[in-house]
Amino acid sequence: MGSLHQESGLVTKVCEIYAKISKLETLKPSPDVNSLFTELVVACIPPSSINVATLPQNIQETRSKLIKLCGEAEGYLEAHFSTLLATFPNPLHHLDVFPYYSNYLKLSQLEFDILNQHYSVEQDVAPKRVAFVGSGPLPLTSIVLALYHLKNTEFHNYDIDDSANSMASRLVSPDPDLSQRMFFHTTDIMEVTDDLKEYDVVFLAALVGMDIKDKVKVIEHLAKYMAPGAMLMLRSAHGARAFLYPVVDPEDLYGFEVLSIFHPQDEVINSVVIARKYSSRLEVEHLDHHQKLGMGSILPSSCKYCDFQAFNNISTQQDEYY
Questions:
Q1: What is the pLDDT of residues 141-165, one digit of tens each?
Q2: Closest CA to 269 of 33, 54, 104
Q3: 113 and 68 together in one domain
Q4: Which branch of life, at top level (predicted)?
Q5: 35 CB contacts (<8 Å, ≥6 apart)?
Q6: Which end of the chain is more exposed for a tag (fewer CB within 10 A), N or C?
Q7: Pairing of strands 271-277, 256-262
């Protein structure tokens, strides 16, 4: 009963904040905007067992609208601080003026550690080329990873908004190192095909596809064109934090083997998902078999049916699935 009461109180609180946010004339940074979104984050950050997928339809619709408002406000916030940072001779020396910079440091460290578990970074086999889809006007994840973790890696940032890329480019152009390793592409990722095969790791920003159906379309496109064996890292949300960002479930990642899902319990809001694109048709059939058995997409280490399938195919050259 206590849990249900807490969930009911949380939903009521979120809906009240949404009603106030939706009446704002603008979502650009201001005392009122900052106060309401801070109140929303504070309400959603504590660990919660709530499953937003089971909420009534009217609450689901409110959540979808709220996520879009959060995305719009985040875009304005990043543009504001990107413009401010560009006034410094070397903007990268002043990243801490962004109020959530410490969160990005923690999130980037978390993502690097998770990537490190599945990609041989420590053995001097770091990714040579990384793509970040939906980088925006303040690409802090790319910048922090490039500065502190992947110091010899090329970063290719994709955004559909030319003004966002122009603002982002101004931040790194004065830096002699990052200006040679960080590139910006103004294009819809759904129109990028062969170039996707060039990346060892693709990061998908949380707000690319704020509706899960749109996000799944992007994931399917990446699955079609990424190199076999390449890594996909994306951000999701868990519990009450799903009022702020879309939730990506393992079944949304068809064509990929889900390697790890991590749900932070601190002020880092986003969950982190890492997956690997399957290398062959056999691996995708392997996934289909497990899903039919209700095993999900995180594959068990041993499966007699799969061993049998592998044995039958051992002498057959496997074509790439995509």
A1: 999 999 999 999 999 999 999 999 9
A2: 104
A3: no
A4: Eukaryota
A5: none
A6: N
A7: antiparallel
